[in-house]
Protein: Arylamine N-acetyltransferase
Amino acid sequence: MNRYLKTLGVKDVGEKSLQQIVDLTKAHLHTFPFELISKYTLVETDLNGRIPSVADFIERFELHGWGGNCHILNGRFVQLLDWLGYDVQLVPVEKGHVAIWLKWEGKEYLVDVGYAGPFFEPIPIMQGKWTVETPYETSYFDRQDDGAILWERVRDGKQIVTKTIYLRPLTEEEFYWWVNRSYSDIPENSLFRKVEITWYPNEERHQLMNTVYTIDKPTGERVIKTYEDEEEWVQLIESTFGISRKSTEKALEFLRERGVELFPVLY
Structure:
């Protein structure tokens, strides 16, 4: 875990506090990208290879620049928080997501570093309805009578997705079922038919969705560029996001074999 903290740039752990979790959350988002590229290499491994230990997680980041999806990012972060002495558990979120449930000084919070639209700090869990604003989107929460929480994400006035959070411990069986499902090699599995990277250096939002690269800044400024040259695109991923060329080329090969051509050849 000390290597994990060092990678996050944490030199002195200090006493437990909510502010410490805020700092760790921001450091995590600044360091590890939410990315799907690594899946196109990990698909060739077994289940144990797809979900790394903490040591393997850090090593893969150092060697390849990989972060991962929610199963990896939140899965490792919850281990770090637990090691630091916090009362945390993974909880299921309908449609395959997992989040972190934090209990601190008699209150409950939602922590999430494993999402393209994450939170930069623990989100208080309330009764009834409440709203959370980040610089890049708005989340509407509605806690139901049975304890489940409806979660609607909205960006630029448009609904992105609606999910349901269940405040109960995620079972190991559920966790691995969703991991296996995320690797379903079928056209309907959209998360296995595209390239996506989202990273938050200094709380800026850098997102590559296939060939469209968008930078959003907390000030509201937005820059969008569409890449038409494959080599330039590969260099972007390597130089900006730090993900190895070999990983990106593996992703392109996988997608092409399934009829997904990000850079079609013009005759």
Notes: The CA atoms of residues 30 and 244 lie 18 Å apart. Residues 18-31 form the longest helix (14 residues). The mean pLDDT is 94. Residues 2-257 form a domain with the Arylamine N-acetyltransferase fold fold (CATH 3.30.2140.20).
